[in-house]
Design goal:
Blueprint lengths: L2 H40 L8 H32 L1 H4 L2
Helix pairs in contact: 1-2
């Protein structure tokens, strides 16, 4: 296996990781921003106020986009397994 192949596999793994994690991270980011604006407007300084809404948002994102994320992971894994004979040379 050449260094270029290893770098290519690592790059693709990072791309899939970011693609699968992005919906949950974006949900948490948007909910956190909305809660922060609410806290600034009402002058409520409670650090734990955003925990439950973020958790619910992440679970909702997982429920809605879970099948798509699973499909991306299955396709990536199938491609890696199918390329094992070519990589072993």
């Amino acid at each position: 296996m050449t260094p270029e192949t290893v770098i290519g596999l690592g790059t693709k793994a990072i791309e899939v990781l970011m693609l699968v994690a992005a919906p949950m991270l974006l949900a948490a980011l948007i909910i956190g921003l909305v809660i922060s604006i609410f806290q600034a407007a009402t002058q409520i300084n409670e650090a734990t106020l955003s925990f439950i809404p973020k958790l619910v948002g992440i679970l909702l994102a997982m429920a809605l986009l879970g099948p798509w994320m699973l499909t991306v992971l299955i396709e990536y894994t199938a491609n890696i397994i199918a390329s094992i004979p070519m990589l072993a040379r």
